[in-house]
From TrEMBL:
<dbReference type="GO" id="GO:0016020">
    <property type="term" value="C:membrane"/>
</dbReference>
<dbReference type="GO" id="GO:0015095">
    <property type="term" value="F:magnesium ion transmembrane transporter activity"/>
</dbReference>
<dbReference type="Pfam" id="PF05653">
    <property type="entry name" value="Mg_trans_NIPA"/>
</dbReference>
<keyword id="KW-1133">Transmembrane helix</keyword>
<feature type="transmembrane region" description="Helical">
    <location>
        <begin position="124"/>
        <end position="144"/>
    </location>
</feature>
<feature type="transmembrane region" description="Helical">
    <location>
        <begin position="245"/>
        <end position="266"/>
    </location>
</feature>
<feature type="transmembrane region" description="Helical">
    <location>
        <begin position="156"/>
        <end position="176"/>
    </location>
</feature>
<keyword id="KW-0812">Transmembrane</keyword>
<feature type="transmembrane region" description="Helical">
    <location>
        <begin position="183"/>
        <end position="202"/>
    </location>
</feature>
<feature type="transmembrane region" description="Helical">
    <location>
        <begin position="93"/>
        <end position="112"/>
    </location>
</feature>
<feature type="transmembrane region" description="Helical">
    <location>
        <begin position="68"/>
        <end position="87"/>
    </location>
</feature>
<keyword id="KW-0472">Membrane</keyword>
<feature type="transmembrane region" description="Helical">
    <location>
        <begin position="214"/>
        <end position="233"/>
    </location>
</feature>
<protein>
    <submittedName>
        <fullName>DMT family transporter</fullName>
    </submittedName>
</protein>
<feature type="region of interest" description="Disordered">
    <location>
        <begin position="299"/>
        <end position="321"/>
    </location>
</feature>
<feature type="transmembrane region" description="Helical">
    <location>
        <begin position="272"/>
        <end position="292"/>
    </location>
</feature>
<dbReference type="InterPro" id="IPR008521">
    <property type="entry name" value="Mg_trans_NIPA"/>
</dbReference>
Amino acid sequence: MATELMDAIALAYQPSQLLGIPVALVGACFLSIGAQLQHHGVAKVESQTQNASDGLNMKQLGLLLARPSWVVGTLLLGLAIVFQLVSLKLSPIILVQPLGVVGLVITSILNARLSGVKLNRPSIIAICLCVGGVGAFVVIAAVFAQDLPVTNRSLIIILLVLAVVLVLFVLAFLFLRHRFKAIFYIVGAGILYGFVATLAKVAIDRISHREWDWLLVLCIVALLAAAVLGAYFVQNAYSSGPPDLVIAGLTVIDPLVAVTIGIVVLDEAAGAPWWAMVGFALTGAVAIWGVFQLSRHHPQANGETPVSERLTGPLEESSLD
């Protein structure tokens, strides 16, 4: 069965379109290490200042710039973005974007070793649900979905939907942020980065084909706006949740949103049979359920582990502190 699936994927894509896969895997490694370092920096700042339950303030954001661990983590995340953009240039988003879930496994192992907090059984099951759900989702997508060019009409729809999403998230943050927990910031960042990945793919394709117009400018502006708000949400998620939970949300929700945009807006699954559409829904639901279960059962989630305990381990004693 596995051989038949691999043969189907090989027939669906040209060999050159598979080059982005190893590039995306390297980016996932940078993502996991960078997330661990950024989380450490945010936890360190939070332990030295007031609680960030209402969101990180400007003073705390400034203090992050003085934390070597956070700066190095940010640089590694920058490298992860570069590798992601290269992979998007080489391969369809359906193939490479979900590969970031590999970073969830790496981050979970790193966080357990560095923090000294072992994952419990429900957390391990939740991670397996995330990885398994995304893996099954991308296999179905790789076999039946098509990588189609984004028309002006489709791009306008994506931009309008993103505008509504941005407004809703900003309003929710302004008026309801005192009620937020890590899961809100994680889901929000995952949704926003799903749009970022899609718009990045569009921008790369249009720039490479020298399609300079006002839609490209709007695309880049919207991409930057979503990326900035998403990055702020990620930092707030670090202050109230473990790094592997944050990465779970990003590497699960992000590709599901990106591929869903491709299916619903870009009609990339027009030729898929009905059972494939059911498969998309079920595997996506399993992956998202895994994220929520991880947020519920992770030993470091929901404030079960104090900030001071998150700062123990080899990383606390390193020169990156």
